[in-house]
C-alpha cells in the first residue's frame, strides 16, 4: 500500500470504510511526515495529541457505521481560523498567545464531520500577501524547486502553509481563505487544487477578518473530487454570520460526471496581458482545446472593466482592513507592548501596534485609513465601490449571454524565489493578483486546477470561474479539465 499520508481524501475515505486502514494510522503517518518537514515551515502550531484523540473518536464512529464523508481524515487548518484552545494568530505577532475559547464555524463543521486537525498552518500576516513572506513565523517554503536549482521558492500566499502542506503530503487536505486569490494562487504555485466558493457559501464566523466583503473560506486539496468532498463539509448556512447564504448545500461529489458536452466556456480577451510568459499563454490555449475536445464550446468574451479590478481591490480591501484591524489595540487581544513611566493610552496603542503589526499590514492599514478619510472617501472608496459594481455586471452579462464558465490563468508567473519580490515597490507583488481579484470583487466561485509544468519543471494552474452558487457545475467542469490534463506530477522530496 502507498504511504498513507500520500493519499487523497476520497482514497483514504474509501479505505477507512472498507476497514483497510484506521484514522489513527492515517494520522500517525501525517504526524511523522510533519515532524520531518520543518524545512518547509508549513506547520506553525502542531497539535499531535488533539489529532490522535480525534482520530480515535473517528475510528469509533466508523465502527458504528456513523461516518460522514470527512470522518477520520487528517487535515491542516490555516492559522486564520479560530480553533478552541489552540493558538490562532493569523500569522501576526499582535495575536501572540491568543487561544480562542471557541471554534470557527468552518472548523466546527469539519470537526462535526469527523475530520482530524493536525495543526495550524503558516500564512501571510492577516492574509495580506501573495508569497507568505509577511508571516510572523517566517516564510513557508514551496516543496517544488526549479530543475537543477536549489533556490527556495514561495508556495504562494496568503494560504502558503496550506498549499505547501498539501503538495508535500503533510496532510490529506487543508483549509484556506481567499480575499483576492489566496487559495487559487498558492494552489497554482504548488500543483494542487483550490476552490474559492461563492461569497456567503462558507461562514466567516470565527475567521480572523481581513476584508469582510471579500474574504471567503475554501478547501485546498490534491484533486477536484477531494475539493468537492471537503467543500460539502465546510459549507452551510450560519445564523452567526449575517453574510452567510441560507441555501442547501448540494452533494458536490455526486455532480462530478465529467460530462461537459454543450457547455459554453468563455475566454476573456482582457486577461491576455502584456508580458505574460509564453508558457502560461500556451497552457491557457491548450486548456481551452482540451475542454473543446471534451465537448464544450469555446467562446471569446469581453470583461471590459477588468483593467480597473486591481486598483479597485487595493482601495476596498485596505479600507476594510483598516476598519477590521482597529480592534487590535493591546487592550482586548494579544500582546501589549511594555510601556515607559508616564506613557498614557495613546502611547500604549502606538507602541503595541508598531511592534505587533508587520510592515505590509501597517502599509495596508495606512492606505485604508487614507482612502476612508474625510477628504478622500468619495474620490477613492466610493469610486472603487462603483467600479466593483461594473466588474460584477461584466460577469453577469457574460453569464446572461449563455456562458457557463470562464477559463483563465490563475497567475501571471510560476512560483518565484523567496525574496525576489521584496523590492522597494510593493506594487510588483500586488500585480500577482491581476487574474484573481475580479472573482472576489464579484463574489463568484473560482477553482484552480493544476494543468502542466513549465520548462523548469514548476507547476502551472488554470482557473475556472463559475456562476454564483453553482459550485457543483463548476467543479464538474474542473473535473473534466483535470481528467483531460492528466496532471499527476509531485515535487521531489528534498526537505
UniProtKB/TrEMBL annotation:
NCBIfam families tied to this protein: gatA
Enzyme active site: 78 (charge relay system), 158 (charge relay system), 182 (acyl-ester intermediate)
Top-level division of the source organism's lineage: Bacteria
Molecular function terms from GO: ATP binding; glutaminyl-tRNA synthase (glutamine-hydrolyzing) activity; transferase activity
Keyword hit for Ligase: yes
Catalytic activity from the UniProt record: L-glutamyl-tRNA(Gln) + L-glutamine + ATP + H2O = L-glutaminyl-tRNA(Gln) + L-glutamate + ADP + phosphate + H(+)
Membrane-spanning parts: none
UniProt-listed Enzyme Commission number(s): 6.3.5.7
UniProt keyword Lipoprotein, yes or no: no
The name this protein goes by in its record: Glutamyl-tRNA(Gln) amidotransferase subunit A
GO BP field: translation
GO CC term, one of those recorded: glutamyl-tRNA(Gln) amidotransferase complex
Protein function: Allows the formation of correctly charged Gln-tRNA(Gln) through the transamidation of misacylated Glu-tRNA(Gln) in organisms which lack glutaminyl-tRNA synthetase. The reaction takes place in the presence of glutamine and ATP through an activated gamma-phospho-Glu-tRNA(Gln).
Record key words, sorted: ATP-binding, Ligase, Nucleotide-binding, Protein biosynthesis, Transferase
InterPro entries, A to Z: Amidase, Amidase_CS, Amidase_dom, AS_sf, GatA
The family this protein is said to belong to: Belongs to the amidase family. GatA subfamily.
Enzyme class: ligase
Amidase domain ranges (all copies): 25-475
Pfam families given in the database record: Amidase
Species the sequence originates in: Tritonibacter aquimaris
SUPFAM superfamilies, alphabetized: Amidase signature (AS) enzymes (SSF75304)
Oligomeric form and interacting partners: Heterotrimer of A, B and C subunits.
Amino acid at each position: 500500500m502507498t504511504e498513507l499520508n500520500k493519499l487523497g481524501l476520497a482514497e483514504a475515505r474509501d479505505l477507512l470504510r472498507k476497514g483497510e486502514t484506521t484514522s489513527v494510522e492515517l494520522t500517525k503517518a501525517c504526524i511523522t511526515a510533519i515532524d520531518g518537514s520543518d524545512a518547509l515551515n508549513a506547520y506553525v502550531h502542531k497539535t499531535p495529541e488533539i489529532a490522535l484523540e480525534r482520530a480515535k473518536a473517528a475510528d469509533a464512529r466508523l465502527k458504528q457505521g456513523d461516518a460522514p464523508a470527512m470522518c477520520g481524515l487528517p487535515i491542516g487548518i490555516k492559522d486564520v481560523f479560530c480553533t478552541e484552545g489552540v493558538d490562532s494568530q493569523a500569522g501576526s505577532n499582535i495575536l501572540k498567545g491568543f487561544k480562542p475559547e471557541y471554534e470557527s464555524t468552518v472548523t466546527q463543521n469539519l470537526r462535526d464531520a469527523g475530520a482530524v486537525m493536525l495543526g495550524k498552518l503558516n500564512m501571510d500576516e492577516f492574509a495580506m500577501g501573495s508569497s507568505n513572506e509577511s508571516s510572523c513565523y517566517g516564510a513557508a517554503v514551496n516543496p517544488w524547486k526549479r530543475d537543477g536549482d536549489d533556490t527556495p521558492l514561495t508556495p504562494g500566499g496568503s494560504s502558503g502553509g496550506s498549499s505547501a502542506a498539501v503538495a508535500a503530503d503533510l496532510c490529506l487536505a487543508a483549509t484556506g481563505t481567499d480575499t483576492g486569490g489566496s487559495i487559487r494562487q498558492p494552489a497554482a504555485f504548488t500543483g494542487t487544487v483550490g476552490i474559492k466558493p461563492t461569497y456567503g457559501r462558507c461562514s466567516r464566523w470565527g475567521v480572523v477578518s481581513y476584508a469582510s466583503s471579500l474574504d471567503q473560506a475554501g478547501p485546498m486539496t490534491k484533486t477536484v473530487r477531494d475539493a468537492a468532498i471537503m467543500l460539502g463539509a465546510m459549507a452551510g448556512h450560519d445564523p452567526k454570520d449575517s453574510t452567510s447564504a441560507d441555501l442547501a448545500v448540494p452533494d458536490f461529489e455526486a455532480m462530478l460526471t465529467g460530462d461537459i458536452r454543450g457547455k459554453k466556456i468563455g475566454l476573456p480577451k482582457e486577461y491576455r496581458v502584456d508580458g505574460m510568459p509564453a508558457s502560461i499563454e500556451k497552457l491557457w490555449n491548450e486548456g481551452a482545446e482540451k475542454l473543446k475536445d471534451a465537448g464544450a464550446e469555446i467562446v471569446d468574451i469581453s470583461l471590459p472593466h477588468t483593467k480597473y479590478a486591481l486598483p479597485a481591490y487595493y482601495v476596498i480591501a485596505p479600507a476594510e482592513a483598516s476598519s477590521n484591524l482597529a480592534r487590535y489595540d493591546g487592550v482586548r487581544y494579544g500582546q501589549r507592548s511594555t510601556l515607559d513611566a508616564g506613557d498614557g493610552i495613546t502611547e500604549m496603542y502606538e507602541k503595541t501596534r508598531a511592534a505587533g503589526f508587520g510592515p505590509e499590514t501597517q502599509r495596508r492599514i495606512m492606505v485604508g485609513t487614507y482612502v476612508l478619510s474625510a477628504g478622500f472617501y468619495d474620490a477613492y472608496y466610493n469610486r472603487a465601490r462603483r467600479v466593483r459594481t461594473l466588474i460584477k455586471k461584466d460577469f453577469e452579462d457574460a453569464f446572461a449571454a449563455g456562458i457557463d464558465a470562464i477559463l483563465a490563468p490563475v497567475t501571471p508567473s510560476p512560483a518565484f524565489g523567496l525574496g525576489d519580490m521584496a523590492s522597494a515597490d510593493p506594487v510588483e507583488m500586488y500585480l500577482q493578483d491581476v487574474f484573481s481579484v475580479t472573482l472576489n470583487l464579484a463574489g463568484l466561485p473560482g477553482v484552480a486546477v493544476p494543468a502542466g509544468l513549465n520548462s523548469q519543471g514548476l507547476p502551472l494552474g488554470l482557473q475556472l470561474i463559475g456562476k454564483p452558487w453553482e459550485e457543483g457545475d463548476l467543479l464538474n467542469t474542473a473535473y473534466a479539465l483535470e481528467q483531460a490534463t492528466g496532471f499527476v506530477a509531485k515535487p521531489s522530496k528534498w526537505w
